[in-house]
Design a protein that fits this description.
alpha/beta, 3 domains, 372 residues, Rossmann fold, 16 helices, DNA polymerase, domain 1, three-stranded antiparallel sheet, Arc Repressor Mutant, subunit A
Length: 372
């Protein structure tokens, strides 16, 4: 629900209060009786707070707060307080939920079951393709795709959901008046139209390095699980995965070639207990009980609609392959199809178990074992 202007003033003042987090808010509300009461409370009721916290609450900078409120009114950005019934329930469960969320776009998108998808800012071609194709398929299954709008895997995940006309949520490490990276301004507009842009930071907040771990806890906190598509050993996406684990959420990782440094972070997560993902079915199988979906047996039946292998293009592609690994470039040369079409068809065939990815970004046909 929308916050009234006066109440919005109080929340905007609270989130500017130094040293006051969401953990201390219930006790302060109980002591002062209401949001308004916090700002008219006697020194006795504010005793025990840090000096700078108490000084702000006794004399807030209401002019700056008024500027924040005008920004909300001018931009149509929603402010969602942690006490609001529309506040995402999964996010409320984490140990340090944001006191307030600023949301541009569809508030109802935050109520969808979400899967966080994260990874390297400098992925391989295969990693970028995996992110986009997994995102496109999983968003078609009803999952919102949540990420951080960074270069690389994040952007590919958002674009996959947009391509399939699904819902995607981008969590920013800056104020919503500052698209970051600036080159993603157009992507941000698409996300706002088909999902939501989310930040806990006030307008004017720059994308400082220490903001991004805070952003990451929101990405994982909004989601029932986190999928790491491709990540180096030092990737920030591992922070998101570890936060998801600490929050009691599922963690998934896509393995890669042992020669690919961008796969080592995923391999590390798998050694630590993340679920190895070879198909979208592996994710849906794990999340089915949480999302009240029909259980999926990924080893028997792929969740992807069966590609029509009688289609001339699918037949041409399969006939151009054998059981020895072959590169996408060579398949493009043999078939005359575009790289995008070949990559999309290969992923469909891979999720169906008819082809498999091999190290180096190559593919081979899978030998079908006779049934007994």
């Amino acid at each position: 629900m929308e916050i009234e202007a006066q109440e919005a003033n109080y929340w905007l003042a609270l989130i500017r209060t130094p040293g006051l987090g969401v953990a201390g808010l219930p006790a302060l509300l109980a002591r002062c009786g209401s949001l308004a009461g916090i700002f008219t409370a006697s020194s006795h009721k504010l005793s025990g707070l840090a000096e700078n916290t108490r000084q702000w609450l006794e004399n807030p900078d209401w002019d700056t707060v008024a500027q924040d409120l005008r920004w909300l009114e001018d931009t149509g950005v929603h402010m969602l307080a942690c006490t609001d019934p529309a506040y995402p329930p999964l996010l409320r469960q984490i140990s340090d939920p944001p006191m307030v969320l600023f949301v541009r776009g569809n508030l109802q998108a935050l109520s969808l079951p979400q899967l966080a998808m994260v990874g390297s800012r400098n992925p391989s071609t295969e990693g970028r393709r995996n992110a986009e194709e997994f995102s496109a398929y999983l968003s078609n299954c009803g999952l919102g795709i949540t990420s951080g709008m960074a270069m690389g895997i994040d952007a590919a995940s958002h674009r996959g959901a947009l391509r399939s006309r699904g819902t995607t949520i981008a969590v920013w490490g800056a104020g919503l008046d500052k698209p970051y990276p600036p080159s993603h301004r157009e992507l941000a507009e698409e996300i706002a139209e088909h999902g939501a842009l989310v930040s806990e930071f006030l307008p004017g907040t720059p994308p400082l390095p220490h903001n991004f771990p805070r952003r990451n806890r929101i990405i994982s906190g909004l989601s029932v699980g986190t999928l790491v598509v491709e990540a180096a050993q030092t990737s920030g996406s591992l922070i998101t995965a570890h936060l998801a684990s600490e929050q009691g959420r599922e963690v998934f990782a896509i393995p890669g070639s042992i020669h690919n440094p961008m796969a080592r972070g995923c391999h590390r997560l798998i050694r630590e207990g993340a679920k190895l993902v070879e198909s979208a079915g592996d994710i849906l199988e794990e999340l089915a009980p949480l999302l009240k979906l029909e259980p999926v047996n990924a080893s028997v039946e792929s969740p992807v609609p069966e590609p029509d292998v009688e289609d001339p293009e699918y037949r041409l592609l399969l006939n151009s392959m054998d059981h020895a690994p072959i590169s996408v470039d060579l398949l493009v040369e043999r078939t005359g199809l575009t790289p995008d079409v070949v990559s999309s068809m290969l992923l469909m065939l891979e999720l169906q178990g008819q082809v498999e990815a091999t190290p180096g970004g190559h593919y081979s046909r899978v030998t079908k074992r006779p049934t007994s």
